[in-house]
Amino acid sequence: MSETETTENTENLLIDTNEYLKAGIHIGTKYKTKYMKEFIYKTRPDGLSVLNLKKIDERLRVAMKFLSNYKPEEILFVSRRENGWKGLRILHKLTGIRIITGRYPPGILTNTNLETYIEPKVMIVCDPWPDKNAIVDASKAGIPVVALCDTNNEPNNIDLIIPGNNKGKKSIGLFLYLVTREYMRAKSLLRGDQELEGYTVEDFVEE
Asked: In angstroms, how far apart are the furthest CA atoms of the chain?
């Protein structure tokens, strides 16, 4: 079996298997935590973990079903990692979901005296490690957190894990494309299986 075959059955995925593989969303790190083992398909000879595509897709579906219960202004999407900034700006433009790129401003979820204080009902982050301050704030405020987690991540204060490569620009771009498309479909901003008009996966990838 080839190293790209991360599951025996990859039919009926959110996007063609080749798109997932091309983006490298299934390629993890050499380090793996015990919390992420259930999502790992195998370890390559070079030590890198390979995530199960079917489980990535399943968790994405669960996450999008969950997020579809919220209005755009009730969702906060955070990414300290620069590889998510371009895609997040498009996501915000198309969906209206609130975003924070770069350094997370401390206290905006917990300090009511701040002019920048906001009260989202759910948070989603690109990587629990660089976005840890946002996650801590969300936990204090009782806000559930959805996170794209690589094989080396700990699930502290994370309510829903989406396994996936959260470092590569192509992987993060594909992730943000799918979140945007599936949220818009759930909110009837796109018809049925309609794609994002005027945008491709590549548009969400940081240059």
From this structure: 58
